[in-house]
Amino acid sequence: MNIEFFASRTITFYMARMFLVRTAAVLAALVIVLMTLDLLGESGNILAFPGNGDAQLWQYVSLRTPQIVARFLPFAVLLGTLITLATLNQNSEVISMKAAGISAHQILAPLIVASMGIAVASFCFNDRIVSRATATLSAWQDANYGPLPRDRGIETNVWVRDGDDLIHVDAASGRGAATRLAGITYFDRSGGRLEAIVRSDRATQVPGGWRLENVRRFDVARGVETLMPMRIVASNVTPDRFTLSNVNGDGRSFGGLRNAIADLKAAGRPTGALETVLWHKLSGPLSSVLMPLLAGVAGFGLARSGRLFVRAVIGMALGFAYFVADNFALAMGNLGAYPPLLAAWAPFCLFLLIGETVLIRTEE
Fold it and tell me: Pfam families recorded for this chain (predicted)?
């Protein structure tokens, strides 16, 4: 009885190469088709901004393509596995390997190891490229596809409420006591009635509130504008309300999101939804490892029995059922209905057991 993890070096490299080539081909086809459709739907909004042209369309493609690759890579792994195993089965290669004493797990082992490499590459790609592209694209869309903000570490268009008063900031940068605000508009209200509008070029935190510099105060009742060198406002507003008012988990790297969650916890603010996104940054890429196991049913059984197509459909159904369960759990985690760890890892563990059970009951 052969109890080695791999059947042989030759079979391992042969199957892994076949699997990777087909996965790459499927991914390329998906990206081309989906990027074309997405660009057709968004090109009108991009070109609506005066001065935008072909360069901005290509810029959108460069920012959107990494998102499409990250989202549909597990689908490509699933389809690549189905095509690989169905081809091997159709050519009776699986029958030959099983006749040589190779188990179903050994047949799938090269695909699983190759998918582990895909998972590692996917995590690095998401952490270094996709997160930055998402943050940049979100900022560009907030500007209605106008001039792209240069500083990626600045929070823009921030609204904060201080009692009855409202504060709008064009840009907030830094962390903690080093937070700097630019383009401040302070709406001084009393009992829901606007009394004055205070504008300032910049602000810094000082004991007692925020010090506005180069202040212009417009009295609404009298219609008179007054110039002041400085003014202190918003004594109850902490820096995190400007810099962490709208944390985009998808637009931050794993380390950056973890730091943001730590800052929010220190400020006493809820972090359940962001923790779900944080853990999903790990479980999401690992879904590629599940695909060979879930689609493995397509590689076994007699091709001449006429059930190869049925087996391929079953494998595809298991794979898509995982994506449905994963998205549902992620949504429940974002709503706070599921704990973050459960929302991120429960579908992975569940379908790992399902895939292993199906493989053992049908082939081992």
Answer: LptF_LptG (PF03739)
